[in-house]
Design brief:
single chain, 234 residues, alpha+beta, four-stranded antiparallel sheet, globular
């Protein structure tokens, strides 16, 4: 929950700085969804619902530092993420939300959203985000014709179940530090590109597609309608 409140503060809080919560926080998940379907199908449409369901009512406070409610679960500790110069916290145009009361800030982003991505082979992917969940993390379930793949980022493993043979397999992963090992892998691939001219698994075109899907999802959410998606990376 504490992690979710940070997206309602600092530069995360305004769509004009991030392109929206779906783009800033969840484009990675949409990118993964497309990667799972790579060479099989492409996204051709999006439907989405979402809104701001948490802290909608002001409590007439503007700053955690000046608030008398010391037991508030959402009291802000700016020391962990505020911008600093020579050890001193400072505020610029993008970081004015730092330290704001979660019930009285100027955030305009949603905090929960569901996205249904329609693929060209008739399959679909369903992504749900709850910023203010009482349990942080990422869960995944891939329903296939003959089996199921499931897991959580924090567990460090995936489970595979074969419907026909009833075989159950657990695959463990290593190097789960820093965003589930993602940060380490990104830096490794970048260095490999520079030193060995090895092309990265994920391209700029992939990243652009993920952001465009996020924008389409927000358009669908706002207009409450199905949004066709046509992306040609070439």
């Amino acid at each position: 929950v504490e992690h979710g409140t940070k997206f309602k503060r600092s530069w995360h809080r305004l769509t004009e700085y991030t392109g929206g919560f779906m783009n800033e926080k969840c484009s990675h998940d949409l990118d993964l969804m497309c990667w799972f379907k790579e060479h099989e199908a492409r996204p051709i449409g999006v439907m989405s619902l979402g809104h701001r369901g948490f802290a909608q009512h002001s409590v007439n406070e503007t700053s955690c530092a000046h608030c008398s409610r010391l037991d508030c679960l959402y009291r802000d500790d700016v020391s962990s993420y505020a911008k600093t110069v020579n050890g001193k916290v400072y505020s610029d145009e993008t970081s004015k939300g730092i330290g704001q009361c979660i019930y009285g800030n100027d955030s305009d982003i949603v905090d929960n959203q569901s996205v249904l991505v329609h693929f060209s082979d008739g399959s679909h992917g369903n992504f749900n985000v709850i910023a203010m969940s009482g349990k942080h993390g990422r869960d995944i379930m891939i329903h296939c014709e003959y089996g199921l793949i499931s897991g959580t980022l924090e567990s460090g493993y995936l489970e595979l179940l074969n419907y026909r043979t009833k075989e159950h397999l657990k695959v463990n992963f290593t190097g789960m530090n820093m965003h589930g090992g993602g940060d380490t892998q990104v830096i490794k691939e970048f260095i490999d590109c520079l030193t060995h001219h090895t092309p990265p698994i994920s391209t700029v075109a992939d990243g652009l597609r993920a952001s465009l899907l996020a924008f389409a999802a927000d358009e669908s959410r706002i207009k409450q309608t199905y949004i066709p998606f046509n992306y040609d990376e070439h």
